[in-house]
User: Fold these one by one.
Assistant:
Number 1:
Amino acid sequence: MLDAIAQALIEHNYLFMASALVAGLVVGSFLNVVIYRLPPILQYGWRKDCAELNEQPFKQKAPPGIAFERSHCPHCQKQLPAWQNIPVFSYLFLRGRCYYCRKPIAFRYPLVESLTGILTGFLAYHFGLGWPFLAASVLVFFLIVIAFIDLDTFLIPDQLSLSLLWLGLFFSLFEVFVTPEQAIIGALAGYLCLWLLFHVFKLLTGKEGMGYGDFKLLAAGGAWLGAEMLIMVLILASVSGLVFAIMQKILKKEEVRIPFGPYLSLGIFLCLIYGNTLLNWYLPV
């Protein structure tokens, strides 16, 4: 049965792309939960550990978990039935408002679902059915969560960046994108280059230009793509971040803090798909 389904998906690429898009929409709904709930869970754990370390009472209520807690409206706290959790379509059907309290539903939710679905469908088109598609999809899911959490909190959780790094090393064992040697060197180079840049910038200006989470994210990118591709990741991340900063400055006319994680995530994704083309264009042999 499974062999027949796989054969049908291989023979009918558009069917595979459509299936990947739908699966991506469903995964995107779960990614919204992770983006929304993981930071409070981490903060709760840090506060609890701090209280225990200082031998102080800790009575804060634990936030909802990621896997088993039912979805609810953040305004009226009503639990949402399954039909209100259909990716994108529920938002359109409800016209962007809670069914119970009529408060607006954040546009972030259908945005993440749509982005995940479209990118998963694109990966199906680009790679076809096989290990590269599966590995690339896992990478993209992590990058989406990292980017949006960093936008919200200026924090890249180690649970995400380090897991992504280890997954990159794992997939390198099968040489999906790079060899194990390239992955290890890429991880080391990714961490060290931003670590050195951070300390040089701090020495010259007395300010911290980025966080350690960015070092770990670039190390994860190196584990997936190899050290050679990191120069393009940094160029793409820097250029896109600079363009967005200029646009924000023009529109808001005030100093704004800009997280680097979303732009690193964009650079890693683009290099996964177009890295060799971009590298050959930038550094022609």
Number 2:
Amino acid sequence: MTAMTVTSDSTTTATGGAPALVVVAHGSRDPRALSTVRALLDRVRALRPAVPVHLGHVELNEPLLPDTLTALGDGAAVLVPLLLSRGHHVKRDIPEMAAASRARTRVADPLGPHPLLVDALQARLTEAGWPTHAGPDHAVVLASAGSRDPESRADTARTATALSARLGVPVVPAYASAAAPTVPEAVRTLTARGHRRVAVAACFTAPGRFATECAAAAPWIASAPLGTHPSMARLLLHRYDRARGAGGGTDVLEGARGAARCATTNAALARQPHPAPA
């Protein structure tokens, strides 16, 4: 995955300082989500005091991303999606909002898949009661929001594979919406295979309806959303650093040609068989 250049390859401010880090959250009607995201941003600021850190939402919460970018004027910023896989928001909505602003921006990759994300998932499972040494009857359902985009599902499957390698047990990705299997379906599949201890790992950045519904389907333990885990703050900064230093990227101002290429790629991916998750 490569960062997308929106208006300029320059990601330093006019005064030579660090470009702003704009964390782009989805937004939620659950008030716990906004407070969690704000607390996560405070962790990021504590790790990197010299970097201006801002928040923008795709929808549902203020500040909305266009308003955050307007406040930055023509300054430089790196937009880091607080999203765990590729999908419509990462590939279309966020770049289009960035292109409509005066800011000199670069859009970073989403947070997953990445080893730091797996660190946070494992830690949340441990907090929920996952044993140090899991047996052959243990398994995990990796619960995420879901997307119709095949690249999003491929990213979630890769995260599941990495978590499986870390834990030494089967990990099956499942979705709250827009994709199959659902969490209850994945639980039933693993139970039918003889796994009596099936945990649900919340692959969500903050509390909300999807996270609550998925946790309710757990037959054993369910981990909390990733929230303010230290690895999440470090991962946001890692994506910021990578995007800031990227020399290439896709200029989303190519407009229709870029959109056509994206649609062609997605259609090709949809026709390709995807490997079964571990």
Number 3:
Amino acid sequence: MKTLVLLALVGLGAQLVDGSLGMAYGVTSTTLLLMIGTNPAAASATVHLAEIGTTLASGAAHWRFGNVDWRVVARIGVPGAVGAFAGATFLSWLSTEVAGPLMSVLLLGLGLYVLVRFTFRGLRTDRLGQPLRKRFLTPLGLVAGFMDATGGGGWGPVGTPAILASGRLEPRKVIGSIDTSEFFVAVAASLGFLVGLGSAGVNLAWAGALLVGGLIAAPIAAWIVRLVPPRVLGSAVGGFIVLINTRTLLGTDLVSLGATGSAVVYALLVTVWLAAIAYSVRALRRERAAVAAADGPTAVNAPVA
């Protein structure tokens, strides 16, 4: 019972982050399932089954708040589903000894990308309104869907920054569109795992607990997406993912540093993580000060979303 309550809280927290940042539900949830010893393919399958419900609820909430561009959803969701099915069947065929370290490496890479991307670059908004082309969204969907299924997460970490970097769609619609299109990815990945693992590969109780937490958080996240600074949240989430998956890799035969070496690595990672968050906060304050100065004296006393 304690495990189910913990998983529900994980689902709630992960969905709050995912719904407001456009990424990290699968990465966070899968990382924590791996920590408690779940088979990599089963962990991804369990998370994707829960995501069928959470992405549906999140998409509906984002649609309600006007955060969805349906053209983007259609153009990226279908190829994303194809990539996710392929990735799920591929992961199902791998042995646990190979899949475990592979998934941790993929998650670590995604975490590093999120950390660096949001800490140093923030969000690009100088090309808003220009159309996103199908020749860009189709291959992006295929790659992001495949990464999502094999890494237990990746749809948001790959898709959201790529579209944000284009600067052609406002951030809240990028997040809402990615969250909504992830429903197709979750369904396709779940079907792929069903083919590869069968129903025995999924822990229904754990999926249900993750789902309950996610359903509670989905409408809240869709509302706060206008309020939470994505730059700071991205640095915090990226650092967390890097730290947890480094811990997983240090516990395998691939990396053996001993207790002292591992402690040094953890200390360095935590220091870098805290420094990244501090840098993001300072950068955000500078950006807001610059905007206030550009807008004139009336903007100084205006509330900042």
